[in-house]
Amino acid sequence: MNVVAVYPAAAHSAYKIAAKTFASLAKQVAGVSVQTVTDDEYSNYKVVADLTVLIGNDAVNSVTAKIYLENRTEGFGIRYCTDDYCIRTVNIDGRCFTFLVGGRPRATIYAVYRYFDLFCGCRWFWDGDRIEKTELPRSGINIVESPRFDYRGIRYFAHRSLHRFQAEHWSFEDWTREIDWLLKKRLNLFMLRIGMDDLFQKAFPDIVSYPDRDQRLPEAGQGFNDRTLFWSLEYRGELRKKILQYAFERDLIHPEDCGTMSHWYSRTPLDFINKAKPNFLPQSNDYYRDLTGFVWDVRNRKDFDNYCKLTDTHIKEYGSSEMFHTIGLGERLYSDDRELNRRMKLYVYRKIATYVKENYPNSPLLISSWDLWKHYSPEEVRDLVLELDPSQSIILDYTSDTTKDNNFTNWGVLNKFPWMFGMFVGYEPDSEIRGFYELTNERLKLAKDDPMCKGMIIWPELSHSDTFALEYFAYNAWERETPSLEEQVDRYCRDRYPSELVAEISDIWHSFLPIVQLAAWSIDEERQQTTHDIFTDIIERANFENDKAGEYKGKAALAAKYKDTAAHILIRLSKLTVVDKMTERDMYDIARTIIARYINTAILYVEYLYAAGAQTEELDGVMRISERLLGLLTDLLGTHDDYSMFASLAKLRDVTETNPNFEQTLKENSECYYCRSGIYENAKCLYIPEMKLLYSEVKKSVENNELLDKKVIIEGKAEIRRRYFNTPLATVEKPTATFSDILVKAAKVIGNINI
């Protein structure tokens, strides 16, 4: 079949990209070679095509316009300059035409992917595509689709550890796949909050120098505050430019950070502090209490202007002034006096909004919700909303699924003020599948019914931790209805898995859902098994407090009632024949989630028994269960590179020259109290020995009828950490057990839990 795709010659680059994308997918799906030509070239095209695909609406594509103006097709039913699109087939004088018409450039790319989705059976995921083999349809199609939300996007974040989960690790090739996936899911906004790269060097070249890649950053702190480089800052600047250029060529939105942007991932270089000598706002709480983390005193014109210079420079060097974003005084308290603190925070928002309005008058400003959720009262948020300009400002609420009373339903925005609904997939230690979808579904219905809700955002602190959450978000960010969780799971399974496995894995997922919802940042205390996985830092997170015996028992019992289901799921997974990497990845994610839940369950029960005055013999049995499960989870993590820090380090080195000493920084970043997650080397070298250390002291405490010796525990933990830092990642042995064997053993242990 002869196919030609016609795109506008004098228009946005996204139209040519849409044509090339159609040609590539047509080859994969139907084995058809597609010739791409401009609308100018088409007039000289001598071959009568079996199918002519017209890329772009009548305002940009002259061939589309000619057919429309000659009354050979109806209007396209889209809202022009929006994300609406029309897919239509028309027979004109015996010739087949397919229109892929978007209201704006990116919407035309959406139309291409949607054509192959709806009419060729293709499906798109962050970690791969499902491409069906079929013929290209040439008749019987006429659809118009428009999004429920104007803005649909993802906030990427700056933690480090494993390649799969941490956007800062990704190469340009990784980012092109990710940006293409955003378009496949009809998203239009992404936030590259992974540090500022060489922005200070670009904005203040006379006083801020490029640091030596191979040395520890002068302003590096501890834990996640150690921002020592793995790639040079010069390379990171080049990478940022390429990523954003790739996105803008596809008509995507990247909000510009503005205002008081000092944070742990956007620290002030010591060069700037020593030479520019900024003043700093007073701060009464403990977040980022050093000079590189303090907020500059924006009451002084020089300091505020320097913040503005960073934003202006980013726009000039990398970005676009289409949209702005601010965190205000995120996580900081200016004063212990609540009224003085409130006044300062409002003042800062006024300064930032005024700067944007005066310099970029047509650009909206996103007001980040984290500080509103964390440090404001609902009344204080309502006061802020009342003084913001609704024609400029949008409340970016990525805490919409919180159970706190301080949420969007009490902020005076519903039906009154522009805002965006957000899912927070956190926290950083929580890399398994989790989420309180019962609440999220109900909150989403409020958002979709509110004409003032302009967008839907997801902020996963670990970017690809939960594939189902990403699919749930992407679907709901576009569609107007909110199906039940069960319906959304069924759709996910039909789309993601091979047809011969759909029934089995779908049934597994439905059995798995109650276990998923045992843990999420948004679950209320009565239902929440644990905010963070206890086993990742048992010394930090297991408190053994006598007055919490009932709480420990209740949370353990909540999970224990699903133990037979959990064991049965593991057995079923162990028997599945894996046919592709995407299915295998989900099998690992389900399995590690279940095992992690029941490690936490056993630890909670140990805490209960200890607090209730149980004897050593009774404690021993439950301790052995948690130790056995942690060992099995560690083996599971060790059999897949997604969870290998050594494999992630190798990926960094494959991209470009890398700091030869970065292994120590990566350990520092990933083992700190906030960032410990399902990492094989951490589990092998830290989590297991720390559990053994703590349990040995628990036994001594019970046997000797004395308090836990916290000093011995703290000193022992420090020694375990020291040994880990002295152990090269390359020497950490891999397990020999197989996925199936690990799951069978874990199922037996979980099935024998008695609570």
Give the SSE map.
Layout (H helix, E strand, L loop, with lengths): L2 E5 L5 H18 L3 E5 H4 L8 E5 L6 H8 L15 E8 L2 E8 L2 H16 L2 E3 L2 E3 L11 E4 L5 E6 L15 H13 L4 E4 L6 H5 L29 H16 L7 E2 L12 H7 L24 H17 L6 E3 L11 H22 L5 E4 L1 H6 L2 H10 L5 E5 L21 E7 L11 H13 L3 E8 L6 H12 L6 H12 L2 H18 L21 H4 L7 H12 L2 H13 L5 H31 L4 H23 L6 H11 L6 H10 L8 H25 L5 H16 L13 H13 L4
Parallel strand pairs: 1-2, 1-3, 3-5, 9-10, 9-16, 11-12, 12-13, 13-14, 14-15, 15-16
Antiparallel strand pairs: 4-5, 4-8, 6-7
Main sheet attributes: strand count, strand direction, barrel closure: 8 strands, parallel
CATH architecture label name of the largest domain: Alpha-Beta Barrel
**Helical content band:** 40-55%
What top-tier CATH class of the largest domain fits best?
Alpha Beta
Report the radius of gyration as a whole number of Å: 27 Å
Percent of residues in beta strands: 5-15%
Mean pLDDT: 96
**Poorly predicted residue ranges:** none
Task: Give an overview in words.
The protein has 755 residues and is an alpha/beta fold. The protein has three domains: 3-145, 2-Layer Sandwich (Chitobiase, domain 2); 155-264 and 295-482, Alpha-Beta Barrel (TIM Barrel), CATH 3.20.20; 506-751, Four Helix Bundle (Hemerythrin (Met), subunit A), CATH 1.20.120. 47% of the residues lie in helices and 11% in strands. The strands form three sheets. It has an eight-stranded parallel sheet with strand order 10-9-16-15-14-13-12-11. A hairpin with a 2-residue loop joins strand 4 (85-92) and strand 5 (95-102). The longest helix has 31 residues, at 581-611. The protein is globular, with a radius of gyration of 27 Å. The mean pLDDT is 96.
